[in-house]
Specification:
By secondary structure, this protein is α+β, with helices and mostly antiparallel strands. It has six helices and six strands. The strands form two sheets. A four-stranded antiparallel β-sheet has the order 3-4-6-5. Strands 1-2 form a two-stranded antiparallel sheet. A hairpin with a 2-residue loop joins strand 3 and strand 4.
């Protein structure tokens, strides 16, 4: 199951159940035959705009916030502005450095994966380095320009 299918399943589970912990969500995913790590599910929750909400009894549970496309773009731009240190094009890829030791590269990868950017076919993220993969050198240059246009260059 790819990340988009897993995220669709997570949305379905969150909408159909009152899930109170990530461990509970991991268990429900496992029941559906999906094995995922807590870190992966945490990134998915963030990318899907799922937050903790409280009911009238004070019980907290996961709920998806509805965000329109303009808000998603602004969220991506804000994330780039606040956390990207550099972006370098290497042929059909971009190497994007985020704030050192911030673990933000994985969050940014999720935002890019969920965006409507057709110039990115995939991402690979570590702690503070993210690689975007494009089909062509030209597409990689488009991604690089987008990132650099939204970086906070002081």
């Amino acid at each position: 199951m790819n990340h988009k299918e897993r995220r669709q399943l997570i949305l379905k589970l969150v909408n159909e159940n009152q899930i109170t912990t990530q461990e509970q969500l991991l268990g429900l995913l496992k029941e559906q035959g999906v094995v995922a790590t807590q870190a992966t599910v945490s990134r998915d929750i963030h990318a899907l705009n799922i937050v903790k909400a409280s009911d009238s009894r004070g019980v907290t549970f996961y709920k998806q916030l509805q965000v329109d496309t303009a808000d998603q773009h602004q969220r991506l731009y804000d994330a780039i502005r606040s956390n990207v240190v550099s972006a370098t094009v290497v042929q059909f890829m971009n190497v994007i450095k985020t704030t050192p030791n911030s673990s933000f590269a994985t969050v940014l990868a999720g935002l890019l994966d969920d965006s409507d950017l057709t110039d990115i076919v995939g991402t690979l993220a570590g702690n503070d380095t993210l690689i975007t993969i494009s089909k062509t050198n030209e597409s990689a240059n488009v991604v690089n320009k987008l990132v650099k246009d939204h970086m906070d260059i002081n």
